[in-house]
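WARN retry 2 of 3 for item q-0093 after timeout on previous attempt; input resubmitted unchanged.
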Amino acid sequence: MKPLILASASPRRRELIARLGVPFTVSPANIDESMLPGENADAFARRIARDKALKIAEAVDAGIVIGVDTIVALDGGVMGKPESRESARFMLEKLSGRTHEVISGVAVIERPSGRTIVASATTVVRFKALAALEIDRYIASGEPQDKAGAYGIQGIASLFVEGISGCYYNVVGLPLNLLYETLLEFGVEPAF
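OK item q-0093 returned
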């Protein structure tokens, strides 16, 4: 089997992909993650995932490279990772008492053939109305940093989620079923 390479530094993605039971290496891709004018959230997540996978694929002779990007979409806008405590507060206040979408783009590129599959998964998440004190405490926990939309559903923020529709693991940062089905297309069989 060709080497499997995850183009991500995310510890959550490493943990989730390990569930496949297939050996893999990690090679984070640093790319420009700016949204293009007129680009919608789904197209943005797919493009960034593809660009991450492509950057690493260009540097290897053989292998299957996986790129993933997860965003939070609300009111036609995209929430990335908060740059500060203030931006985390702004995001959490916007999400409070509302329903939003979590979209993950997944790109798989096979080298040397160049065969590429790019797909996305969308999960709808409903947050409870958050009190200012809850937001303050959550930000003080440090958990919102490095997470799209300033929250991690697998951690403390699970207390804020009233419901989801779609893949839970997508909200964590890697839609496992989508990745599994895509890897099967490349002949990658899980070890379970």
